[in-house]
Amino acid sequence: MMRGALISLVLLVAGCATPSATVPAPSAVLLEVPADHCEPLGALAVRMSTELLAPEDALHTSAVNELRRRAAVHGATHLVVARASSPASMAYGTTAAASGVAYRCPEER
């Protein structure tokens, strides 16, 4: 009896930890200029920081990945990332920002 309850609890917790099937994966958002018929969804921006000293390219990559994740949540299929206006800054920790415009393109048939 107790063993069955423990197994049920483990399965319930594992089921709660699985990602939702309704939210697209960030990798589904293409980092390229979309076709002319695509709908602009708007600008997005993110700032990433850490207490640890990290290479600026690694932190910028993390910022772009977070931007891509947010674009996916908004239903974007494409994301045009703006060029970084300044490199990541190092003071107490490291900070990087990324911004861009998200687009939704209809599926090709």
Protein architecture, described:
By secondary structure, the chain is of the alpha+beta class. It has one domain: 2-Layer Sandwich (Dodecin subunit-like). The protein is built from 2 helices and 4 strands, in the order H-E-H-E-E-E. The chain has helices at 2-17, 56-73; strands at residues 39-50, 78-81, 89-91, 93-104. Strands 1, 2, 3 and 4 form a 4-stranded antiparallel beta sheet that branches. Strand 3 (89-91) and strand 4 (93-104) form a beta hairpin. The radius of gyration is 19 Å and the shape is elongated.
Topology, pairings included?
Elements: H1 2-17, E1 39-50, H2 56-73, E2 78-81, E3 89-91, E4 93-104
Task: Offer a concise description of the structure.
The protein is built from two helices and four strands, in the order H-E-H-E-E-E. The chain has helices at residues 2-17, 56-73; strands at residues 39-50, 78-81, 89-91, 93-104.
Provide the descriptors you would attach to this structure in a database record:
Dodecin subunit-like; 109 residues; 4-stranded antiparallel beta sheet; 2 helices; 4 strands; elongated; alpha+beta
| CATH topology description | Dodecin subunit-like
- Output mean pLDDT: 77
Per CATH, the architecture is: 2-Layer Sandwich
Kindly report the oligomeric state of this protein.
single chain
**Which segments are poorly predicted (pLDDT under 50) over 5 or more consecutive residues?**
9-19
SSE arrangement, N to C: HEHEEE
What is the helix fraction of residues, given as a range? Answer: 25-40%
